[in-house]
User: Fold this.
Amino acid sequence: MNPSQSARSTERAGQRVCVFSDHHQACAAAADWIALSVRENTERRGRAVLGLATGATPLPVYSRLIELHRLGRFSTEHVSTYNLDEYYPISPLDPLSYRAYMHLNLFQHLDLPANRTHLLDGTTPEEFVDDHCKQYDRWIEAEGGLDLQLLGIGRNGHIGFNEPTDLGEPRAMALPTRRIPLHPTTRQDAVREFGSIDQVPTHALTLGIQPILAARSILILAFGSSKREAVQAALTGPATSRVPASLLRHSAERVVWMIDDSCAEGWCD
Ligand code: GLP
Assistant:
């Protein structure tokens, strides 16, 4: 699949940036990209390992994957999935949990074996959270790593729930999977789902920056004017732990950005 068929393709900070006229086109291209990755990796090594994201951005990607599955053009029989993040604490039965989101919007519609859909567990007792996160990283390593990591981006430049930090670049790039306090901007954005700020969890579990950067291919999606500033900073500003997505340039040759015209306006025209 060549996303440039329906998009302008350019390069920023060594990374390929595909600009689509609208987000539906971008999501269709993203779904085709994921389906191709699954096919190629299944043929090559008998399985495919996907890192998946939540939020509003990837929903049309998941709808398209379900459609491809119904058309007999996409099978997940030999796929394992690892989600990026989960609120903490939260029950998997809570409709606002990412486990519930994934079940509703993707898993239940595909032929994925039940023991191959992995999410960080928001019910892990506090004293075992570190072990749980280390184990999650070990599971991914034991699968041979992520073939493809799908990402969105927060308005503050976060990836997964890796929030802006003053740690500096080298230490931020080594961050493993862990529990983190949510940034005020992230909590504010989550009011959309939770209804009020008091209802938004204060913490989350997130795949670390290190395992994200280690994925063999990274597909990051960003649409609309609300993401413009963060994407512009990530792609045209310095690499800094204050804009976690700017660290993706350290895996530049493996990263593809798919954005829409509205997000690109004024800096990537
Ligand atoms: C949340 C998720 C991120 C996601 C981001 C953007 O904070 N943890 O993984 O990329 O929000 O969400 P949306 O796609 O709804 O804008």
